[in-house]
Amino acid sequence: MHYLASECQCLGKLDRRRLSRRVSCQLLIREGGVESMGLFSSVRNVFSTPNSAPHNYRPSITEFQEQDIDALSRALKLEERGKSRGENEEPPLGSEAYDHIENEIIEKIESAKSRDAQAYADQMEVYAERLASLNFAGRISDLDLSIEASISSFKRLIKDGLDHLHALRRDLVENESSLRRFRERERREDPAVLRNQWTHAIQIMLIAVFGFIESISNAIFLAKGNEQGVLGAYTIAIGISFLNLGTSILFARFSTNLIHMNIFRKFIGLISLILFFIFSFGLNLSVAHFRDATDQLLEGGGLYAIQAMQENPFGLKDFSSWLLMGIGFLFAIFTFIDVFFFEDPYPRYSYVTKTARKSSENYAYASAQLTHRIGEYQVEAFEDLRATKDDLSSWRHHLGVILDHRARWIEAFQSQLDHLNRAGNSLLSIYREANKTARKGKPPARFKESWKMLRPSREDALPPNTMAGKEIDALIATAQMRLDSGMKEVSAIHDRALADFKGLDNLVPDGAFDNKVSSDAKE
What DSSP character marks residue 191? Predict the structure, then answer.
């Protein structure tokens, strides 16, 4: 994750890698199974993207077939049959019902009408399914629920993060209070001297180097007279170096009590310092006598060295023994000084200061990261809500396309019905004109009447329970207003969260700390 500039400023010169390891096991936001990123993705899922059609829509290419009047007339032989019946004065002058030829014409037209009506009904059913697949009312209801659920999740994440930040802030308050009380009680006016990890590494490395050099030098000096040579002497030298430097480290830690305020602890520190010099000097002097003894004797060197120490402690016979004693004692002193100033020498001052500083760093890191993350959530929420508005407009466009094609299909069917009605009258007219021409008398009066085909009304053409365009537009307007209010609500939640984070500073009374941790820490 990339950190904002404000977060970097907040962290200052803190070691981010060290802080990352320190707080990596802590959940800055306890997400409870909710994806931290894409919090409002469920809102976008209500409507599909414009690049993918939200229904199985394909514009219809079906066309109604026009009736060929001339072809039908020839197929039915209307002129010949009309002339033949006219010559026979049929149908009679007073007939009111259609004759069999007229009924045949009407049946042809009605058959065409039935075929076209079936095609019309099938296509209208497809349009109804397409409109039902859009399901604007249901999806807009889902949209409202998704917005509410996403906002609730956003609030819950902020609350969980605030609870965690609150705990870190309390730790900071307690640790800084502990540091302040420590400095007042121990009368420490100067800040604690803290070492960074590189300084500690150098100090530890120096002790290791001291031990290595001392063990090598001891092995070289003790090799003479040792039955196993350098290898056997080095085994003994390692034990001597471990004891020499180990006791120096132990005495150095106890000797820091010399600068303590308590008289009893000062006494412990003084005793530790005296014991260090006595033990270190005595140990290295004994090693030097042991070197003298092994130089003269192959066996019993240790016993001889103890006797020589008792009779004449400073009676070393070889300059190399004095050199061995000096190197060991000098390295012991160096190790003592190194450990004495490993941290601030005043007992527990470094520990209390480090604890307060660690709490401050953790709180600053957590606060910056949490602020950054809720800012990311706000930006993502705006993007998802704006994209949903665009998707909503796309769906409205798809709806308009379907309604437009459906309206044109209805008009086409109505035009086809008009065409069939005209075609029927045209065919009847051909038959009747041929019949009247062949007659000697008058034709039936009904020959002057036009035939009217039965046709469904326009209301019957619409599928049931279909929402009107105005109702859908009203729903879309309501959804867009809800999306706008959702963005405002997200922004308000974000601003309140930042105010709550800042309000955590009120946990510390004004003037509670005269010295901040940041000013207490120096390299």
Answer: P
What own/partner pairs with CB < 8 Å and gap ≥ 24 does 450-453 have?
Answer: 450/425, 451/106, 451/421, 451/424, 451/425, 452/421, 453/109, 453/110, 453/113, 453/417, 453/420, 453/421, 453/424
The answer to whether 1 touches 375, Cβ cutoff 8 Å, is no
pLDDT (0 to 100) of residue 384: 79
Highest-confidence range of 125-139, 310-324, 391-405, 485-499, by mean pLDDT? Answer: 485-499
- The lowest-confidence range among 142-146, 156-160, 359-363, 452-456 is 142-146
Question: Of the spans 43-47, 298-302, 473-477, which averages the highest pLDDT?
Answer: 473-477
CB of 230 within 8 A of CB of 217? no
pLDDT tens for each residue of 324-363 = 788 888 988 998 888 888 887 888 888 888 888 898 889 8
Cβ contact 476:139 at 8 Å: no
In angstroms, the CA 369 to CA 29 distance is 10
Q: How far is CA 432 from CA 85, 94, 420, 435, 449, in A?
A: 10, 15, 18, 5, 11
Residue 166 has pLDDT above 70, yes or no: yes
Contact 520, 353 (CB under 8 A): yes
* Three-class DSSP category at 40: coil
The residue type at 350 = S
- The kind and range of the H/E element at 75 are helix 69-76
pLDDT in tens, 173-201: 889 888 898 888 888 888 887 787 888 78
Q: How confident is the model at residue 31 (pLDDT cuts 50, 70, 90)?
A: very low
Classify residue 183 as exposed, middle or buried by CB count within 10 Å of its CB (0-12, 13-18, 19+). Answer: buried
| Maximum pairwise Cα distance, the chain | 175
Residue pointed to by tokens 């007229």:
102
Own/partner pairs, 277-280, CB within 8 angstroms, 24+ separation:
279/247, 279/251, 280/244, 280/247, 280/248, 280/251, 280/328, 280/329, 280/332, 280/333, 280/336
| C-beta atoms surrounding 219 within 10 Å | 22
B/e letters for 146-172, b = 16+ CB within 10 Å, e = fewer, are bbeebbebbeebbebbbebbeebbebb
Report the amino acid identity of residue 215.
Answer: S
**CB contact at 8 A, 32 and 376:** no
Which residues is 193 bridged to in the sheet? 522
> What is the distance between the alpha carbons of residues 301 and 307, in angstroms, rounded to a whole number?
10
* CA–CA dist 290, 287 (Å, integer): 5
Query: What would you report as the CA-atom Rg of the chain, rounded to the nearest whole angstrom?
Result: 52
